[in-house]
Amino acid sequence: MLTKEFAFNFTNEWINSWNCHDIDKIMIHYDDSIDFTSPFIIQFNNDPNGRISNKNDLKDYFSRALNKFQDLHFELLNTFLSVNSLIIHYKSVNNMIAAEYFEFNDHGKIIQVKAHYLNSF
User: Fold this and answer.
1) CATH number for the domain that contains residue 113
2) Which domain of life, per UniProt (predicted)?
3) Would the pTM of this model clear 0.90, i.e. be above it?
4) Total structural domains in the chain?
């Protein structure tokens, strides 16, 4: 079960690693067997499923996003906590409102992400 302390620490580390544009700090949160879905994958990877299923491909995808959005800065709005998952609600690139669902394994690594964006697609 995730604790409030874990959720607070994870959320701040995750937001800060993105705002520092530090790909290694970003990737430390993800398990090797990550299952990541996002409508941006459809655009950037030309993948109609919008899905990435391994950490190396996710790192490449994130690296390309950091290069494309050089002024990337996330602003935390809310964090929602459940048993083994949380949702981070934040202001993303180009002031898009985003909510990402994160599911964690027993080691505190992310095993599943579903990214959502308000009225953007």
Assistant:
1) 3.10.450.50
2) Eukaryota
3) yes
4) 1
